[in-house]
Amino acid sequence: MLTAAAGALTVHDIAVGAGYYFLPPALTDALSSEWISFAIPVLILAYIALNAKRGALRRFLKLTALSAFVFGVLYVISLIKGSYLSMYINDSVLSLINSGFYNGLLHWLTVYLVLSCSCIAVFDTFAAFADMRSESEALKLKSKMILDSCRAAEKSLSETAQLRHDFRKYLTALNLMCKNKRFDELRATLDKLCDNMSEMTRTSFTENFVINSLLRSAAAAAAEKNIKFSAKAAVPKQLDIPDDDLCVFIMNLTDNAIEACEKVTDKEKRYITFNAELEDGYLAVTCSNSYDGKINEGFATRKSSAELHGLGIKQMRAIAKKYGGTLNISRIADSFTVSCVLKTNAQRRP
Q1: Theoretical Cys-Cys bridge with 78: which of 59, 83, 226, 301, CB 3.0 to 4.6 Å?
Q2: The organism sits in which domain of life (predicted)?
Q3: Around Cβ 278, how many Cβ atoms within 10 Å?
Q4: 342/304: higher pLDDT
């Protein structure tokens, strides 16, 4: 519809200005008809109405208000200084009044409608591509979360099987120690067994499946890179924030922290501390980690794929804004902290 209006405007102007030079008189008369002049703005207004739900009307009104304000300011400045712009506008208005003000005004109004709606259409197109790209990245992150969760479950099953095998050996050894009255060795072996059991059972951080899966995945990745990982998540099983947003936000947050810790040369100083807590309808998330002191784009990370890293940061900021929060970043010595408070859907309801 917008393309048809722009094409009709172009053809109509050419037909009016130079149609008699290269077109048959009948065709020239048809293309330069006043009905086309009326039809073009009708098409534009119909385009705006049909796309009103997608924000076209709101953006058109904002653009019109901004254009009118800028035009008015420039006109007043030109009028005060007596420069060419105000004189040209005044002469043009008088000329339109003398030669047919209504037709001239309709023409320029049509030109403005076509140009402004074209700008809006271009903006909407780029915005749609950006949304598609963001959704694609979110799906990749969710797929990664599912894959990591499956790997973590497989590893947990393997460790459980190994623990059962070792447990039989421990029982045999404990039985022999007890029969031979080697109680000191018995006590030491029991302490070691309790420590191993405590470490093996630390597979759940919270009742919330999504957050727990993400933290388990982050803990496994941190362990592979010699990073001390600790997490607390006082979050209920059902959280009134969509899983997709949680996945994108927390996965980007923990991935950035892990990647930053990798840059710390002293492995003893590598650590990540994650905390999440829900209180009065607000989800507070804080993640602290060690880093080497070098910052890129506001985060302690320098990923090889700068484009994807930048997209991850934008996604986190967008999610924070969506839930009424801001991404807060602080640095103290070799410690880097990112925190955010998100309003849940329940809190945002009137």
Answers
A1: 83
A2: Bacteria
A3: 20
A4: 342
